[in-house]
Amino acid sequence: MSTHAEKIAAALHLGTRQVEHTIQLLEGGATVPFIARYRKEATGGLNEVQIAAIRDALQKLKELDSRREAILESIRKQEKLTPELEQQIAEADNLAQLEDLYLPYRPKRRTRASVARERGLEPLADALMRQEPSDPDQLAAAYVDPSKDVPDVKAALAGACDIIAERVSESAQARHRQRQLLRRSAVLTSTVVKAREAEAAKYRSWFAWSEPAAKAPSHRILAMLRGEAEGLLRIKLAPKNEDEALQLLFDQFLKAKNPASQLVKDAIVDGYRRLMAPSLENELRNVLKERADREAIRIFADNLRQLLLAPPLGAKRVLAIDPGFRTGCKLVCLDAQGALLHNETIHPFASVREERAAVSKLEALVEAFKIEAIAIGNGTAGRETEEVVARCRFKRKVIAVMVNESGASVYSASEVARREFPEYDITVRGAVSIGRRLMDPLSELVKIEPRSIGVGQYQHDVDQSLLQQALEDVVVSCVNQVGVEVNTASRELLSYVSGIGPALADSIVNYRDNEGPFTSRADFLRVPRLGAKAFEQCAGFLRVRESSNPLDRSAVHPERYALVEQLAASQGATVEELMHNKALRDAIDLNAFLASIANTEADLGLPTLTDIMRELDKPGLDPRAKFEVLEFDKNIHRIEDLKPGMELNGIVTNITAFGAFVDLGVHQDGLIHISRLGRRVADPHAVLHLHQHVKVRLLDIDLDRRRISLELIQS
Fold it and tell me: Do 93 and 128 belong together in one domain?
């Protein structure tokens, strides 16, 4: 494991001891959020991203070790494992190098070379490879044997050259050099399949495209690969100069200038073009695909994090509307905890009379249920519904907010929704989701498969296992960063808390339903199957708002309660007094306090003490930003209302590698291309974030393609 720690530390530019301690914690069952929050002394203050990178690198090294053992076992069974080869395999530090060493020994289907060996032509290939000044025809004559399907000299030489071609293509040294050349100089080309040119219109940009593969951005690679998968494009990867690739092989294998070496040269060309080049092209495709996948996943993960951590309205009484023209607008009234109180349907777009009735109904419901905010889904009929709400004359102060309803339909048809609202149809469930999403985006969005939320880029084209891991990391990180009130949290929210998971989440909810609310963190240990390890991992992230112990409402871990009591005692105060009196906290010299307990708290340091003091200052503080309402231009409702040069308010709805999409309130997001962000940036995330309120200028509107081009004015 120490070897792994050294490799990971070097790759990630971290200290070996940091990595060793992190690996020990991970292997001991600790989660990434727990390690980052509560084990800073052990890791040297590594953050979640660094800890997750160590975890992933460790997993890759374990997989490499497993493959190494399988290869060694396979070659041993063939009785071909020499000490030199075993050492080379042991020292191989990446999968490509391992597979190159294994290639000559890998069981394979019959090849032209294996057929030639069966015909006894390997000694002839050996003789030709020596490239001695002899006549190849004379050498080959000894191997002519019609009974072995070697009828003449020409056939013998051809078989020997097939063996040479395969040897060249399987040479680990040759493959390494070719791989380096290809990754350095490969050109990515895309051409349209002529017979399907009309179908491929959406890929027109890549009908005749060529660029250095190393510089191709992830979104372009994924787009072209999708076009190829649909049979509309042909993709090719090849060195910029094939002669350079062949010369590398000639330099390695050619030893003379004579008839034998000419045959070897011809075999080299054949081996390169027929065997090595296609193999390395496929390998490079996989490398580019993996690189593009990781970039697309990174963008999706960044967007998802921002979406999950969007500012919550908080515990307010909400009337939520799922708009619709033909089927009407579904209304639900929710209490401050998100419980469904009432639902019905209005039809404001059916007639003038129905519109008036809808306005009256909205006014009555707002008064009857003491509504504080109205959440309006931003899909079809969203802006029109917003106009209807604007015509209402409420007797109380009410804010109206357009809510991104992406994924609400997925939730409404899910098992989670059916379990929550078994007696209601999907329209009611969808409206409830919209309302709750306004109150607390995180708590509601964890109920939806992250891939369905619609803030990614080519998420259906990327490696799904990598995507799942990345998105789960983000959800877990966000949930634990915010913290969870154990007595009101859903099963889905609880399942993402460090150390819990779906099974324990069910146990917690069942215990809560049967035994009543938790009164302290100590009660968690009464939950069936929630043992000491799970308690250690989850306790600091779960809050018990009604607990008599104020620390149970904070992010201070129970393992540090005694420490907080010592801090309070040092000032002659109780824990509650320390939490409410800034002067008492400011009077504590952390270094002196640490020195006084150094002999009994070996794993305690300034990082933990500093975190505790920060938490005592603002216990249970929600890290999310304050909620703000944005109003769209009241004169703009449809894309047809837009004109170049207009300056409008908008909300960022999605961020990609090539720019950001902005909701202008016209049912079609506009695009701020990366070149229109006001300054040169490599990543739009450096300038914008999801849900950010921005001012934009309209550059162009393409009504036929429903495309809106924007320029960022103010963020």
Answer: no
